[in-house]
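Researcher: I'd like a structural prediction for the single chain below. Treat it as a standalone chain; there are no partners to consider.
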Amino acid sequence: MPRAFECFVCGLLVLSGPARAFGHSKTSSIDAYCNRLRVAFASTSPFVFSGPDPWMQMDQVPASMPSDALAFVYTAGGDIRWVFVRITNEDGGWSEDIDYFYRDDGSIAKRTRHLQSVSSNIALDVTTYYLAGRVLKEKTRHHALSHGKTDSSQLNDPDAPVFWNVEDLPFPAIEDLWKRLA
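Model: Treating it as a single chain, here is the predicted structure.
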């Protein structure tokens, strides 16, 4: 093997290790950022919306789950940082929790989905990391909800939308709502 080729291959092998570590450090820093948001908002009151057709602001968290969806919007000043959405479909036998985390510039940093399908006895967890308007990494994991056989043919994955920026969120434009936060 020519020496130049051997060194080129060695260089690629050496570079591939740190490149993977670099990607891991990006997801780790996104995880750390999202954990800081969770801690920061743990004792705050979010804006609450019921929806989705149409999304309506609620004065307080309801005692029981509304028929379709409930959203908690956490803000820092006038900027949305974290949105938690719970969607249920009793007829379809599934429920889904989605967390959207946003950066200071309003772009999405991370989306986590936890889908439970009673009819198929499956729980599906999907974590997606975003950077510069693209998917950086996605991890998917599924497991049985309870003892017994899972039936993936019965799994109806509604796949939650990606709101790439806070301006894409579906909540109503209540006059001066976000300005009141600042």
